[in-house]
Write a structure and sequence with these properties.
single chain; alpha/beta; Cobalt-precorrin-4 Transmethylase, domain 1; Methyltransferase, Cobalt-precorrin-4 Transmethylase, Domain 2; 2 domains; 5-stranded parallel sheet; 5-stranded mixed sheet; binds S-adenosylmethionine
Length: 265
């Protein structure tokens, strides 16, 4: 029989911001943890912590160091939660943790840590919920950050997603260090979509200062976008309308012309 686990590590998705959008499992693991590890602003997103808990804030980046720290802490017998905003598996900490586990698999360094990934509501589905159903059909989620992958890979993926007519969710659209990439991405998409394609510009979804705007591809202005913005670029079939109350709705139909919706779906 193998030894029982010494400690445990939960990689917890906090959701986009609002506590109502945090799963009960995430809330329970955050409450029971002895140690909370994460990028400072995400730890602050948790709010008040208990007297039995220690917070370990980390600077942005250094995900591998943060993951190894959390695994070591759990291996010492602690009950650790390492946090990400949104879903931890989407451009976030779950990958770093599993990658570190893989790297040390042969050494057995963390063999007695019980690891769980606790999913969360990702920014794209949160933004989509605010405006209707823009992700209602096939979609691609692409991060425009070239910190961890080369820009030419990003361009190839945008080109492929745009030419295949996917709805495209753009994460990490722009930062002070990456000022031109968003416009370049929009230009690439524009080779395959008309300028009146609906675009959802979602800023701080579920947080103070939330704003959700419906624009067209031709109207998107990178000057109004930052790292707290998520963009959803519609496919050629995505629709937009404004209801009688003046509320904008965006949706991507599930059925194509000539295909009847199935009663089973
Ligand atoms: C490093 S990624 C992390 C994504 C996160 N794991 C998730 O599932 O939402 C950070 C990017 O996610 C998007 N994002 C995260 N939370 C957001 C929110 N509340 N409102 C709008 N965009 C958000 C932004 O594009 C931001 O630059």
């Amino acid at each position: 029989m193998s030894d029982p686990a010494l400690g445990r590590l939960a990689v917890v998705g906090l959701g986009p911001g609002d506590e109502a959008w945090r799963t009960p499992e995430a809330t329970a693991r955050l409450a029971s943890a002895t140690d909370l590890v994460g990028y400072g602003p995400y730890l602050r997103q948790i709010g008040e912590i208990g007297d039995h808990q220690t917070s370990h804030p980390f600077p942005n980046r250094k995900e591998a160091v943060r993951a190894a720290f959390a695994l070591d802490l759990a291996a010492s017998g602690r009950d650790v939660a390492i946090v990400s905003s949104g879903d931890p598996g989407i451009f976030a900490m779950a990958t770093a943790v599993v990658e570190e586990m893989h790297r040390e698999n042969a050494s057995g360094r963390w063999a007695r840590v019980s690891v769980t990934v606790v999913p969360g509501v990702t920014a794209a589905t949160a933004a989509a919920a605010r405006i209707g159903a823009p992700l209602g059909h096939d979609l691609c989620l692409i991060s425009l950050s070239d910190v961890l992958k080369p820009w030419d890979v990003i361009e190839r993926r945008i080109e492929a997603a745009a030419s295949a007519d996917f709805v495209i969710g753009l994460y990490n659209p722009l930062s002070r260090h990456r000022p031109w990439q968003l416009q370049r991405a929009l230009d690439l998409i524009g080779h395959h979509r008309s300028a009146d394609t609906p675009v959802v510009e979602a800023h701080n979804v579920g947080r103070t200062g939330e704003s959700i705007r419906t624009l067209t591809l031709g109207q998107v202005n990178p000057a109004s976008v930052d790292m707290r913005t998520l963009l959803i670029v519609g496919s050629s079939t995505t629709q937009q309308f404004t209801d009688e109350a003046g509320r904008s709705w965006v949706y991507t139909p599930r059925s194509y012309a000539g295909k009847l919706p199935s009663s089973e779906d």
